[in-house]
Amino acid sequence: MRAVDILSKKRDGLPLTEAEINWFVQTYTAGDLPDYQASALLMAICIRGMSREEIVHLTLAMAQSGETLHLRDILGGYAVDKHSSGGVGDKTTLVVLPLVASCGVAVAKMSGRGLGFSGGTLDKLESIRGYDVNLSTDRFEALAKQNGIVLSGQTRALAPADGKLYALRDVTATVPSLPLIASSIMSKKIAAGADGIVLDVKMGDGAFMSNLEDAHELARLMVDIGVDAGRDMIAVISDMNQPLGAAVGNALEVAEAIETMQGGGPADFREHCLEIARHMLRLAGQGEQWTDAAEVRALLEKNLNNGQALAKFRLLAEAQGADVRMIDDPSQLPQASMVETVDAKQAGYIAQVSALKIAQAAFDLGAGREKKGDPIDLAVGVQVHVNVGDQIEPGASLVTLHANDAQRLEQSRVLVQEAITVSESPVEPLPLFYDVIEGV
Ligand code: URA
Fold it and tell me: Within a 10 A sphere around the Cβ of 289, how many other Cβ atoms?
C-alpha cells in the first residue's frame, strides 16, 4: 500500500477501506510513516470528513494499536466506565467513581491530564500528596480486584496510535474534527475494556463543542461507534457555558469534591454527579437491577450524605499512596498565599458566567498548562459564587481568586470581571442537561 494513494483518495472525498485505515494506523504507530504524510491525511479528514463505517474502522484500529484491557475478567462482572469530553470545573469523576463503587459496582478507570483550558482528573488527584497516578497494568488490576475501585493515568501501552496522532493534531490545527475527536475518545474507552460507557459530552463556550447541534452529532457518533464495538452506551449532553460547581483549579476542586461527598457542595455539581452515577448504575444493572430512577436516586443521595462514597474515595486514595490526612482535613491541601474576593458593583441578575473566561483566569493564575509536560500550580484557581439567573445585590461575592503571584492575580481579576455580566431584568437559569442519547 502507498500513502500517496490513500492521501489522494481522501483528498478527493472518496471513502477509505478498512484495510487502508488499518495500514495507516499501524504504519504510523510503528514509526514507518512520516509526520508530513500523516498530517496531510489528518487535514484531508478534517476537510472531507468520514463516513460512520470509516470512523468505526479508524476507532477500532486505534483501540487495537496497543494493549487492550478486559475489565469484566478483572472485576469479575459487568464493568462500567465514564468519560467527559472536557470542561471547566469538571471534577465529576472524583465523586462519581467512589459513589458508584459505594453501591457495590466495581470501577476501574484511566483518566487524563489537563491541556489548555480543560482540566484533567490526574492533575486534580495529584494535589493530594503522594497519590500515585502512574500504576502498572498489574497494579491497576490488583487494586481493582482488592478494593473495587482504582483511578489512574492511562498506560503508554493503551491506544498508542491516539497518543501519537493527538500530539500531531495539536500542532497541525486538526483537533476540531468530529471524526477525529470521536475516534480519539472512543479508541481509548474501547481499549480500556468496559462493557458499558457513560459519555458526558459538554456543550458551551468552555467545551470543544460550542453549540447543541455539534454536541449532539458528536454524542450520537460516539454512541454509534460504541454500539458497533459491542458496548452499551449512554451519552448525556451537559452545559459548559458556565463552570460546573464553584471551584476551578486543582486542589480547590478536590476540596469541593470532598465537600460534596460530605453531603454538601454546590447544588449544580451535586445534581450532575447524581445523574451521571444514575446512568452508570442503570448500565451496570443490565435491565435487571437499578431500573427504577427514583429508587436509584434515593440510594445515591443516601451514599453521598452518609459518608459511604467518601469512605470509598479515602480507600482509593490510600491504596494509591496518598496522604489521607488531606482528605480528612481538606485545609491541608495545597493553599494559595493570596486570596481575594471580587464583589458585585450593581444589583441585578447574573446573565453570563463565561466558562471559557473563568478557565482563562484560572489558567493565568497558573492552574493549567499550555503544552504537555508544563508544570502547574496545584493551589491556585477561581471559586465562582454565582450562577446564571441568580439575583444579586451590590457587594455580593461573585468570585474568590486564589493566587501565588501578584501580577497573575491582577490579570485574572480583569478576566473574571469580563466573564460575569449582570442584567437589570430577570434571566432564566441554564439547564444542567440538554439531552440523553442511548445506544441500542
Ligand atoms: N479528547 C480526546 O481524548 N481526544 C480529542 O480529540 C478531543 C478530546
Answer: 14
